[in-house]
Amino acid sequence: MNQTPNLVTSEVFNDNVKAWANKVKAQIISNAPRSKGVLTSSIITQQRKIYNVTNAVKFKFAPQGIYVHYGVGRGLSRSGGRVIHAKSEQNARYRKKDYKISENQPKGREAIDFFNSTIRQNIENLADITQEYYGDEAMKKILNEFDRMIIKSKL
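^ that's the sequence the OP posted. Answer follows.
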């Protein structure tokens, strides 16, 4: 009468996490600017495993992704939360050309949040996958130890 419920194994958990990572990768690629072919082709995912169970997911991409994310490059840099002309850090004469990110950002560059927003939108799904596996692991341990927890009568 005592049936063991269908518990999530480590292989199924790893496959679910890999599927989540691939789904997020596809969304990141679709959010990245189309003109950045090098960036979209460089996006990869990796899983770090300990004892054959995924404990970390890593997204890697070309350095251009940071420039796109912050809206810097080609003579513009970021300093103290501001996008400024790179020359202004070197020469006092150019310091008048500082721009706040929210106001008058230098023309030609715009920050594009292609990465963080996608992770924020999908992190709940990863939490559900993780909760299901580790909840099942706890249940499996309880079921294995069940005989120790009950009082055995000698009648």
